[in-house]
Design a protein that fits this description.
By secondary structure, the protein is α/β, with parallel strands linked by helices. The strands form 7 sheets. It has an 11-stranded mixed sheet, covered by helices on one side.
Length: 362
């Protein structure tokens, strides 16, 4: 079992140590499950309550958060750094180094067409299929059962995990990661309704994944009808994300699980979407926009906004609406009480009016 003192980590990270420099830790752990032999990290004020209840022996955090925690009575040992999560990852890999990738070259059990071109250092695992005129750059890894159909092109240092499928003529940039069971370049969901039946529209376009894109497990990106469906540089798609035909996704977008974009949507750069966000066809999401989970979008959204709800509206307005909805039972009770009081007053008024009329007649 490996063991390090927190002083060793402080020196390695260039951090400032607060506490017992000789405290030994044997592993990393999240705050909620850490013990005195673990090192964890804190990078948000929202986690302060959790940290104060934690049994962690040491915590990586910022100077500001360490000050706050100590003022609240924390006795834990701290290593203060500028970026706690990055420092934590470095420490984690000391305890849990990533396994070395096996070097198998081109497996005899893989099917590689004789017209395909594979760059230096490529790894092709058993039962993978590489079709006609496929081009792989240097140091690509094609996992077991993965399929790369005819005329597709991949740049250097790409990874295609097990059972992922790239349809014909897909274009992939450098350092792209495609996780297991993802499907890139299937036909878009496009049909004409003719004489009472759906008639398939041919999709002769392609998909282009730009440099440093990552596609999650079981995600799908459909090919364009005429041109390319594009996933911009550095964009990250979580597991089970659906990008329909002709979409144009900007650079450095991040979409969480089960996001779905209908056909011909566009996004600017640095757009973020929470889980299960749904976007109607031909909608543009402006650069820098952030959409909360389950937001439903049916019209263009301006750049730089925060949006919630279905239909999606400005976050602050959506929160006000939610608060108002939670108060409806209270408002209903108040309305019922006021209605009862009004009826009573009306009854009293009618009685007084009748009495006055009776006296006048006398």
């Amino acid at each position: 079992m490996m063991s390090f003192t927190i002083n060793q980590f402080a020196e390695q990270l260039g951090g400032q140590l607060r506490g017992n420099s000789q405290l030994s830790v044997i592993d990393v752990a999240p705050l909620e499950s850490a013990t005195a032999e673990h090192i964890s990290y804190l990078d948000s004020k929202k986690q302060l309550k959790l940290m104060l209840a934690s049994a962690a022996g040491a915590v990586l955090t910022t100077e500001e958060l360490a000050d706050r925690a100590q003022k609240l009575g924390s006795q834990v040992s701290f290593i203060t750094v500028d970026e706690p999560q990055a420092a934590f990852i470095e420490v984690m890999l000391k305890f849990r180094p990533l396994p070395e990738e096996p070097s198998i070259g081109i497996s005899e059990r893989a099917i590689v067409d004789e017209t395909a071109t594979l760059g230096e250092g490529c790894q092709v695992f058993p039962n993978a299929y590489i079709g006609k005129n496929v081009q792989l750059g240097k140091n690509c890894e094609i996992g077991p059962g993965a399929v790369i159909q005819d005329d597709s092109v991949l740049g250097d240092d790409c990874i295609v995990y097990a059972n992922a499928v790239l349809y014909r003529n897909v274009q992939v940039g450098q350092r792209v990661i495609i996780h297991a069971n993802a499907v890139i370049g299937a036909d878009g969901f496009g049909y004409r309704f003719v004489d009472g039946a759906f008639v398939k529209i041919p999709h002769t376009g392609t998909v282009r994944l730009e440099d440093d894109v990552e596609i999650g497990a079981a995600a799908t990106v459909d090919r364009g009808m005429i041109g390319a469906t594009v996933i911009g540089q550095g964009t990250k798609l979580d597991n089970q994300v659906m990008i329909a035909h002709n979409c144009q996704i900007g650079k450095h977008n991040a979409f969480a699980s089960q996001v779905g974009l209908a056909g011909s949507c566009t996004t600017g750069d640095y757009v973020q979407m929470g889980g299960q966000v749904g976007i109607s066809d031909h909608v543009n999401i402006g650069a820098g926009s952030r959409l909360g989970g389950k937001a439903g979008v049916g019209q263009d959204l301006p750049a730089g906004g925060d949006y919630l709800g279905s239909p999606a509206i400005d976050k602050k307005e959506a929160i006000r609406n939610f608060i108002n909805i939670t108060r409806l039972p209270e408002v209903r009770a108040q309305v019922k009480q006021l209605t009862s009081q009004l009826e009573e007053l009306q009854k009293q008024l009618e009685e007084q009016t009748a009495t006055s009329l009776s006296k006048s007649a006398a």
